[in-house]
Amino acid sequence: MVLRWQGLLLIDGEDKALALSVSGWPQRAVAEPETEAVIRGPREAFTENVRTSTALIRRRIHTPDLKMESMQIGRYTQTQVVLCYIENLASPNLIQEVKQRLNRIEIDAVLESGYIEELIEDTPWSPFPQIQNSERPDVVVSLLLEGRFAILTDGTPFALVAPIGLTGAMASPEDYYERYLIATMIRWLRGVFIGVATYLPALYVAITTFHQEFLPFPLLLSIAASRENTPYPAMIEALIMEFTFEAIREAGVRMPKALGSAISIVGALVVGQAAVQAGLVSAPMVIVVSITGIASFTIPRFNFSIAIRMLRFPIIILAGLFGIFGIVFSAICITLHLCNLRSFGVPYTSPMAPLSLEGAKNSLMRAPWWSMRKRPGQENKSNQTRQSDATTPANRIPGLKKRQGGTT
Fold it and tell me: Which residues make Cβ contacts (< 8 Å) with residue 137, sequence separation at least 6?
């Protein structure tokens, strides 16, 4: 215990000692989230100190059912890892499974929660994340209240939450702070742009290479004129522009914060304009890649956005070789992979497949809070009641049933 920054109080005549925490070191104060910014919502984020992170969760959940079990992982670092869950909401089998996976970890050091994520996920070779990372306490608390678990790691502000699904990976914390009509519209818009970020460059390559009859004749003439002096086929042109855009985006991330965004935008404009004037790429390809890049920024989860960006390149190659048939083949392969994917045994495509009507209220749409009376049923089977029927408008607004022609 002395090596864990604890002091021992020994009392003469007693056979037991008291362990007192005497640890203290400079640490970062609680600040705004850097990667999950919202317009409306809390402005607190986890810190590298696991005690501060657990305090931010306990500040929001005042129940003895909230359990936090601490353990040390890493032969040399002995990093403190805290498993958080709500006892009456989380499935006992789920908690037992995550404890077994954590206890099986034997590694020299754990310096970030990414070490643990890679060692406990179901399918390590899948590009899609099966564990959600978040630096927002309100996001973690909301998922705990749905029967999931969270893992806090000392030395990193990012908590791990599982199990998750495809719809959860596309959700933003702000969806639950705005009115449901606004949140539903934004969620649909986000879904459209996820499809654009995945398939738009490949669709352009397939149409301009094999299926020119899909385009109106004036548009076809315009594209043909712009590509007249381009030395590369559409597939190579798209790959060059996508690689260049990814390089500019990565450079913007690594640059100082004050310069990164400006350099990324200016660099993309300058490189795109110069490439068009030099005849290396066509103007429509620059437009397509720009729209694709903007669409990828609408994805709220960074790790899910990376998966989409990775899949874009093989889809472009298939489209350049086989046209629309290559795009359809890639869509079938991705769908089959998602249907076979699991996050701690929970289907990745739930609640859509297998279908759960209660869970569907918070997937493709965001239903009103008063209609989501049940928790998602995949993680917890015993305690699914989230709120009573008294919260519905017909019960909480006096005289509403009478005005609607019903009985009071």
Answer: 42, 44, 45, 46, 53, 56, 57, 59, 60
Q: How many CB atoms lie within 10 A of CB 101?
A: 15
| 341 conformational bin, left if phi > 0, alpha if psi -120 to 50, beta if neither | beta
**Residues whose CB is less than 8 angstroms from the CB of residue 75 and which lie 6 or more positions away in sequence, other chains included:** 106, 107, 108, 109
Q: What percent of the chain has pLDDT above 90?
A: 36
- Tracing tokens 């522009």 back to the chain, one arrives at 241
Give the pTM: 0.84
Pairing mode of beta strands 346-347, 18-21: unpaired
Between the alpha carbon of residue 113 and those of residues 110, 136, 306, the distances in Å are: 7, 15, 18
Q: b/e for 308-344, b at 16 or more Cβ within 10 A? A: bbebbbebbbbbbebbeebbeebeeebeeebeebbbb
pLDDT in tens, 129-173: 999 999 999 999 999 998 899 999 998 999 999 898 888 877 888
Phi–psi pair at 66, nearest 5 degrees: -75, 115
Check: CB of residue 299 under 8 Å from CB of residue 182.
no
With a CB cutoff of 8 Å and minimum separation 6, the contacts of 270 are none
Give the DSSP per-residue string, 354-376.
TT-HHHHTTTTS---GGG--B--
When computed from its CA atoms, the radius of gyration of the chain, rounded to whole angstroms, is: 26
Residue 389 is which amino acid? Answer: D
- Of 342, 403, 396, the C-alpha closest to 369 is 396
Phi, psi of 188 (to 5 degrees): -65, -40
Q: Would you call 52 helix, strand, or coil by DSSP? A: helix
Element (H, E) at 285: helix 283-296
The identity of residue 167, as a single letter, is T
Summarize pLDDT for 11-61 with one digit per residue, the tens: 888 888 887 766 666 677 888 888 888 888 888 899 988 989 999 999 999
